[in-house]
Design goal:
The protein has a six-stranded parallel beta sheet with strand order 2-1-3-4-5-6, covered by helices on one side. It is α/β, with parallel strands linked by helices. It is built from twelve helices and twelve strands. Strand 7, helix 6 (175-188) and strand 8 form a beta-alpha-beta unit. The protein has helices spanning 17-27, 43-52, 57-71, 91-100, 151-157, 175-188, 204-213, 232-240, 258-266, 300-303, 311-316, 319-328, and strands at 5-11, 30-36, 78-83, 105-110, 129-132, 142-144, 165-172, 195-200, 225-226, 242-247, 269-272, 288-290. The protein is 34% helix and 19% strand. Helix 5 crosses helix 9 (258-266).
């Protein structure tokens, strides 16, 4: 009988990404224990963790003790920490986890830039392997590894669909992102008539804060925004029936968003403000347009059909290969 390996997955509980990564690990032969990297998904807790986690130190400590009690009887083979700005655990907590799980391989994946979350550099020492989606943060200790697309987007890419929308955007309305998506959408209306735009904000309080403090929101109307995330089934339908996906990274990030990689997986065209996409092996003028404030409608992007990407390159960005590269140090291509 083959003994199942055990993995501890610590990451933000957002959209369905914990399920996607958990399922990927299960396919590799792991049983998975998922731990939210913060004690609550409450908007105020999220905000204070980003601003100064010391305000919640007792609350976080209580949560960490509860986590340690929960996993105390399990010896894990793998501890995988997916880190964004929401990570609430202190350096001493990471150290304690490392001591208690001394036989596990510790892997860190940085899903935000060190400019936005410099604290992450303090805990890199406790990990056997470190990876980042941000090319500028890579070094001898931290390897560059772009994000992934899940099997769902692969399914979209494998079938022909009748597009209902010429372009879509579904995402959090960070100021820079909101501004660019608004401009793109307005200019694209000259050639693309059918669109789906879903700007999400955690609460109306956040909207009014942005309205007061961010110039991008100065003329924003509250009716443009949604204060509950689009449910996954609706999200999937929109993505499946859209020809083009709009993208713009938030401030402080140069790495490709997961939206770009998911569009690759779904074989959708993409318009992005991220110029660095030109340096990736899947870049094609037919499929990807780099927006710099205006559109050239004579570009192959608008004139030509989607050009399929070489299958080896396509497989490289799957969730399977993302996990394989981190855990086994290699890409798996069939």
């Amino acid at each position: 009988m083959i003994k199942m390996k055990k993995a501890l997955l610590i990451m933000p509980d957002f959209f369905n990404y914990p399920d996607v990564i958990t399922n990927g690990l299960k396919k590799m032969g792991y049983t998975v224990e998922f731990i939210n990297d913060r004690p609550s998904n409450n908007a105020f807790v999220k905000a204070f963790i980003r601003i100064n986690r010391k305000f919640l130190s007792l609350y976080i400590k209580k949560y960490f003790n509860k986590v340690m009690k929960k996993i105390s009887g399990t010896n894990f083979d793998l501890v995988l920490l997916i880190s964004g700005q929401s990570l609430s655990f202190s350096e001493s907590m990471i150290k304690e986890l490392r001591i208690k799980q001394k036989n596990a391989v510790f892997i860190l994946y940085q899903w935000d830039s060190e400019r936005n979350f410099p604290y992450i550099k303090k805990v890199q020492y406790y990990f056997d392997k470190c990876f980042t989606f941000e090319k500028n943060d890579s070094n001898k200790k931290v390897k560059f590894l772009p994000l992934f697309y899940s099997d769902y987007y692969k399914k979209i890419g494998s079938k022909k669909t009748n597009n209902v929308y010429d372009f879509c955007f579904i995402g959090t309305a960070h100021p820079k992102k909101y501004s660019f998506i608004k401009k793109m959408s307005k200019q694209l209306s000259k050639v693309y008539k059918k669109k789906f735009i879903y700007f999400y904000l955690p609460s109306k309080i956040v909207f009014y804060y942005r309205k007061l403090h961010d110039s991008a929101f100065r003329n924003a109307n509250i009716q443009e925004f949604h204060f509950t995330p689009l449910i996954r089934s609706q999200f999937n339908k929109v993505y499946e029936k859209s020809k083009t996906v709009l993208d713009s990274p938030q401030d402080g990030q140069d790495g490709l968003t997961i939206r770009v990689i998911e569009a690759l997986g779904a074989r959708k065209k993409i318009i992005t403000t991220n110029k660095d996409v030109m340096n990736y092996d899947f870049y094609s003028e037919n499929n990807i347009y780099i927006y710099d404030g205006k559109f050239d409608y004579s570009s192959p992007f608008f004139k030509e059909e989607y050009k399929p990407v070489d299958n080896v390159i396509y497989q490289k960005y799957s969730i399977e290969n993302w996990l394989n590269y981190m855990i086994k140090g290699e890409y798996k291509c069939s």
